[in-house]
Design a protein that fits this description.
heterodimer, A: 338 residues, mainly alpha, 14 helices, 74% helix, B: 257 residues, six-stranded mixed sheet
Chain lengths: 338, 257
């Protein structure tokens, strides 16, 4: 992949995102057109005489805006965490789902639901079990030094299935009247319940993960070099990798805590990002955030508008992600054979 | 004298790898490390780079004990040029060379205009400025090795460690890399390279270190190896070592008898 300095990728992506943002309001059972939307949004800060219905205003502020913010944050978070995992493990085939972070987080969140703990403990539990899963997979892979790529992927499959069984066990012992439906519905991966409370839950972990990653975006390049090269360049790889793992897992866990397990975003979007911008972290990190936000907002808009009852978003991302992954495997195989 | 290693010892668990190794590297010298597989060449490099900690002995750079240096300080004094391999992610040549600025920048700092100029300078010095925008995975192995050398120069370090710099390169690229190394030596850098080819060491080094079964059995001028005994003993082979006049210069060649 070549450097693509020819066109300004980040501004173009921002415009794309803005289009998706506006378009998403105008699609659905109660469409709000672009002009009306801008007026309604700005009426909160500018003295604009309302010429729209109270219902339109309620749809914008109470239903669609929080949902679009949530889908943007979740898309951005999953995509960046995938990119970071791919950089620190020097492996473009890993993602929060492959590394077990998502299923690990799902297990923790289910546990919090089973014990009927207060809502803030859901992301906390998701984070603890999510990071536990990643560390276990990493420990397994580092015991297979001859083939870390395979070690990471097989370790991820094993740890994922372990946490998956844990979650099944939680479902088994959960009260079938109220806990079980709550856990099952939660794990399906949906944004249908996303309101301002969910946005408030998502924002702090996203901010504290994204800001340091943007600040470290150049140094992350060095972390993707072989370990000894990175060390010889004076980089404290242990500390930097630790920070990156915490940030990536925190983002994954908080998305799981709000919307359940949404697969594939963290694998597909970083790949597309690198195709567009090249490999430099100073470009890939901000671009993957914007592209992830736009992607998941589009998918969520589709999921809530194509059929009468909502399609869980996780199903749609799989429809897109699985064939894409297949394409990557074939492409990689061809490259290696050449 | 730039670097002084005194009485270095190291073991992996119970297995002794290096015992009581002492040598120095000075400005404008090129030192080759010879030794059979498993003789501790790589371990010695890792000790110098601070990846491993010596059991006993000290390494001083400009008189300063390296065990008291931070990672960044060490990286500004000593640069590592690994064997060329293709990267997982295909950074551009310029981006790769720019990574050499890492020890000079604080953790959150991004490289700026001056850093880019430094990287360009290094590319020009090695005559590979045309590759600037190419991906490191799309250029030849020899060119990639030069890119890694350019990155080391961008580090501003005076000591360059090259781990088998010509392994897996074709003959013309081997010569290209070693000629570049010679130019850098003339500019005052101190080079240390490991190699499996005694001829490469005899031809290119101003000083040779020979490791055998944990010990440093030779430390001196290539001329002193002309008698052949030491190398014959090392490789368990009869060797013919001769100084020949190529017309342009004198070179030492080494061929099996």
């Amino acid at each position: 992949m070549q450097r693509t300095d020819k066109y300004p990728v980040i501004p173009i992506l921002l415009i794309l995102y803005l289009l998706v943002f506006v378009l998403s309001f105008s699609i659905g059972r109660f469409p709000v057109g672009p002009v009306e939307l801008v007026k309604i949004l700005f009426s909160r800060i500018l003295p604009i005489e309302p010429d729209w219905s109270a219902q339109a205003e309620s749809v914008v502020f109470n239903i669609r805006l929080p949902r679009i913010i949530a889908s943007s944050l979740i898309g951005a978070g999953l995509s960046l965490s995938g990119l970071i995992f791919q950089m620190i493990f020097r492996n473009p085939m890993v993602s929060p789902d492959v590394l077990g972070a998502s299923t690990g987080a799902g297990f923790g969140a289910s546990l919090a639901l089973l014990w009927a703990l207060p809502s803030f403990s859901i992301p906390l539990f998701a984070f603890i079990t999510g990071i536990l899963a990643v560390l276990l997979v990493w420990a397994i892979a580092s015991r297979v030094p001859s083939n870390q790529v395979l070690g990471l992927i097989l370790g991820g499959i094993m740890i994922s299935s372990l946490f998956q069984s844990g979650t099944s066990f939680i479902k088994l012992v959960a009260d079938p009247e109220d806990e079980l439906p709550a856990i099952t519905y939660f794990l399906m991966g949906s944004l249908s319940g996303a309101g301002m409370d969910e946005v408030k839950l998502l924002l702090p972990p996203m901010i504290i993960s994204i800001i340091p990653m943007l600040m470290l975006s150049w140094r992350m390049n060095i972390l993707s070099l072989p370990e000894e090269e990175a060390l010889s360049l004076g980089v404290n790889t242990k500390v930097l990798r630790g920070i990156a793992i915490i940030a990536a897992t925190l983002m994954t866990a908080s998305t799981v805590a709000v919307a359940g397990v949404i697969g594939w975003v963290g694998l597909v979007i970083p790949h597309i990002t690198r195709m567009l911008t090249g490999t430099d972290g100073r470009k890939t990190i901000p671009s993957s955030l914007i592209l992830g936000a736009a992607f998941l907002t589009i998918v969520d808009t589709v999921s809530r508008s194509v059929t009468y009852s909502e399609i869980p978003i996780g199903i749609l991302t799989s429809f897109i992600g699985a064939p894409f992954f297949l394409y990557l495997i074939v492409k990689e195989g061809k490259n290696n054979a050449a | 004298m730039l670097l002084e290693a005194s009485s270095l010892s190291f073991s992996y668990g119970r297995r002794k790898v290096l015992e009581d190794i002492s040598f120095t590297l000075s400005e404008g010298t090129s030192t080759a490390i010879l030794g059979r597989n498993g003789s501790g060449k790589t371990t010695l490099m890792r000790l110098l780079l601070g990846f491993l900690k010596a059991e006993s002995g000290t390494i001083r750079i400009d008189g300063k004990d390296t065990s008291l240096m931070t990672n960044r300080e060490r990286a500004s004094a000593i640069a590592y040029i690994p064997q060329t391999t293709s990267n997982v992610y295909s950074y551009s040549v310029l981006d790769t060379v720019m990574m050499g600025r890492a020890p000079s920048l604080t953790v959150f700092q991004h490289p700026g205009k001056k850093d880019e100029e430094k990287a360009e300078e290094a590319l020009e010095m090695l005559g590979i400025e045309k590759l600037r925008a190419r991906s490191v995975n799309a250029i030849s192995g020899g060119e990639r090795q030069l890119v890694l050398i350019a990155r080391a120069l961008t580090q501003d370090a005076k000591i360059l460690l090259l781990d088998e710099p010509t392994a897996s390169l074709d003959y013309s690229n081997q010569l290209l890399v070693m000629e570049t190394a010679e130019k850098l030596r003339e500019k005052g850098y101190a080079l240390l390279f490991s190699t499996h080819s005694p001829e490469q060491a005899l031809m290119n080094a101003t000083n040779i270190l020979i490791l055998k079964e944990t010990e440093l059995i030779f430390n001196g001028n290539p001329e002193n190896l002309l008698s052949g005994e030491i190398l014959e003993d090392l490789y368990s082979r009869k060797l013919c070592i001769r100084k020949i006049d190529t017309g342009a210069t004198e070179r030492i060649v080494c061929i099996p008898e």
